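Tutorial, part two.
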Amino acid sequence: MARHPRRHRLVHLLTSGPASAVAAAALALPACASAAPVSFHVGFGDGARLGHDTSLAFAVSVSPKLTPVTELRLLTSAGIDLTSSGLGAASCRRPADEIAAVMNPVAQNPCPANSLMGTGSAQAALLVEPAIDGAASLELHAGASVDDKPGLVVIANTYNPARFHLTYQGYLYIPPPGFGIGVAIRIPQIPQLPFGAPIALSHLQLVLGGPGISYTKRSHGRVMRYHPSGVPLPRRCPKAGFRFRLILRFADGGRSAVDDVVRCPALAPSAAHRH
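Running the prediction step on this input gives:
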């Protein structure tokens, strides 16, 4: 069988970089993939309690039969607001033209440690014939404002099949009634070199907050490390549970919305005393 010249060039570019071992996300996808075109699952951190802060874990799967995703929106349940957490104490400022791959590794810390809000992983395919699958670790940072909205920066460091660096922008916004806060992440297509083909997201795992996030602060002339407070849960839970929504926009103009409901955890002891 004759080799596809375009694929041969892309495979050479992808495999010529150094290998990189990067930690996987804290949330694992279900063992059996859903047959639905889009699946969406949300979970609170271990030991989550009403009236106390927790981490939020999101898992998204997109069928390869769909056109590439160009925007991803996560809507939190009413009463759950990221802006009232301790996450994003600093701001990460990255140029918009970093929405591209680079052959050489960038600095280990392209963003301030105190801007980190969440970590995760992603899987995507480079749409050539046949498609090339890839994987990346993700970091979600607080960023500069976008159209007068609180900005977000997503750093994607690919580690399979080779090491590349991608930066995506996003922002927080006020969602429709019934939801708390909206998280929008833009995933523009990058058909220029070195990829030369669209990238189609297939899996995304993201954990906001959690014990793995560490900040620093000055106290009495000393630099001290601390763990920022996570996402606060309200003291009261909706009767049907906490409803979250995923909204995807696709390159062909299509749109998909999927909801997931998280069961109500127990009330934190301290909050129960105050109630």
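The first helix runs from residue 5 to 15. In part three we will examine how such features are distributed along the chain.
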